[in-house]
Design brief:
By secondary structure, the chain is mostly helical. It has nine helices and no strands. Helix 5 packs across helix 8.
């Protein structure tokens, strides 16, 4: 394998745009440590920083054909690093707010079930608000499934639409609701579980 000093950034960029895996590995070796050091100055967690930098290179490879010729790759990678660190900061702040809120509830009331119920109520309120914002047909299909427990076939007959359209509406609803509840780290499986319990 060639050394990292055998090519300029511009040459590596051109090869990466053409799908050259070896060039990508050279760029990775050239910038990985420097990006980790830069990230660690902002987030003092080696594991988190390394995961962020790994994600940056994954994104770079996936979007390699969108890279512009002559682009300053070092500046581009550092910009991606800053954006991902900002996202991680926001996620940490949200998690910390939840921890502090539950801690205060437990200290005041001394009952973990209270904080759990508070959290569940908050999620349910967000879920209900998100359902209200769905498009009329999407919302109707979702509510017939959720409230009346109708099958897709029964919903299609009630709404005079195809079963495939029902599947599309409910799939879209779940996708939107998951997006609305992303700060709670709700997966589709968890969302369905919450939905069935309501």
């Amino acid at each position: 394998m060639p050394r990292t000093t055998d090519f300029t950034d511009s040459q590596l960029l051109e090869m990466i745009r053409d799908g050259d895996v070896a060039a990508f590995k050279l760029l990775y070796l050239r910038y990985f440590s420097a990006l980790c050091k830069s990230g660690f100055r902002k987030i003092q967690d080696d594991k988190v920083v390394e995961e962020i930098v790994q994600d940056i290179f994954v994104d770079l490879w996936r979007k390699r054909q969108e890279l512009e010729a002559g682009q300053e790759i070092g500046a581009f990678l550092n910009a991606l690093l800053r954006n991902k660190i900002l996202h991680e900061w926001r996620a940490q702040q949200i998690r910390q707010r939840h921890v502090e809120m539950f801690s205060q509830l437990n200290t005041t009331v001394g009952d973990e079930s209270v904080s759990e119920q508070f959290y569940a109520n908050e999620i349910q309120e967000r879920l209900n608000a998100a359902i209200c914002n769905l498009s009329p047909q999407c919302r109707q299909a979702f509510e017939l499934s959720r409230y009346e427990h109708l099958s897709y076939r029964e919903i299609s007959e009630r709404m005079a639409i195809s079963v495939k359209t029902v599947e599309k509406h409910i799939g879209k609803a779940l996708k939107i609701l998951k997006l609305e509840l992303r700060e709670y780290h709700i997966t589709v499986a968890m969302l369905i579980s919450i939905w069935l319990q309501m």
